[in-house]
Amino acid sequence: MRYTLRLAIALAALALLLAGCAGSDEPSDAGAGDAETLTIAVIPKATMHVYWKSVLAGARRAEADTEGVRVLWQGPAREDDRADQVALVETLVQKRVDGLVLAPLDEKALVPPVRRARQAGIPVVIIDSGLADPGAAVSFVATDNFKGGVLAGRHMAELLDGKGKVIVLRYLVGSASNVKREEGFLAEIARHPGIEVASSDQHGGPTVETAMATGEALLTKFGPGEVDGIFCPNEPMAWGMLRALTAAGRAGTVKLIAFDTSDRLLAAMEKGHLDALVLQDPVRMGEEGVRTVVEHLRGKEVPERIDTGVTLATPANLSEPDVARLVHPPVE
């Protein structure tokens, strides 16, 4: 009896030991399936918007074309959830992914987790929006957002024949890419003394609904004839403002220029309610982001900055091949 009990205890202990060993060797959800596969986590600002789906399409293209690479796609539900994005980065660092491609929601809040990733030996490539500490990442793959804002300001000045009043509906404090667009627009408008900036200190917030509410307040403050043009630095801001203009019966009478594209904005352009779109290349951004971090991991020298280009789309050039490709990205 004593022997049987001792044998049972020994077998139970051996089973626990083997289970523990199996758990430590099993790859985590983020881990690679084998030693030769590189797991690259791509973390956008959010996951549902068409712009970020275009980034995913580019990341998947790089995954398909690059041997031994697995892309893991995770991001916050909303573009104002800094805490969730910080937690995602820290979790993926703990899971020991091989590399990170990150579009930071906040240029300051994401610096500490990116630094911790670097200290853990996990390289980070920043896409879309910069960090306050550029040296924390191995490369920055993005649009020249300031240049895009300049293009928007220049076209607005042409539409207004160099005179009138304009509004800039800002996005969120700390969103570096959007701030650069706003700054570029205002810098170009400043070169046209006949154009007055009626408002440039209001933020539309993270959603279409918050943008619409801010837009309605601005249109109440600046009635008919008191604003001639509006610039919105991204698609949700543009759609919220367009809804506010429509509700006020002023869509098509106020010149509207925005960043990024969507089917609803293109429909508004066809109606004459939207005058121009500044287009990025999010597919290229996702693809270059993944390729760059993989090349770094494989010992190749990578550029500190990769400019993915910026294009102005108007009703006159929508059918041109280079513009059409950006207007209708191959979203999964």
Order of helices and strands: HEHEHEHEEHEHEHEHEHEHEEH
* Estimated helix fraction: 40-55%
Percentage beta strand: 15-25%
Largest sheet: 6 strands, parallel
The top level CATH class name of the largest domain: Alpha Beta
Instruction: Give me the side-by-side strand order of the main sheet.
Output: 2-1-3-4-5-11
Helices, by number, come to 11
Rounded to the nearest angstrom, the distance between the terminal CA atoms is 65 Å
- Tally of separate domains: 2
By CATH, the superfamily of the largest domain comes out as Response regulator
Mean pLDDT: 90
Gyration radius, rounded: 24 Å
Tell me, what's the shape?
elongated
Number of beta strands: 12
Low-confidence stretches: 1-33
| Structure class | alpha/beta
Please name the CATH topology of the largest domain: Rossmann fold
Q: Please identify, by name, the CATH architecture of the largest domain.
A: 3-Layer(aba) Sandwich
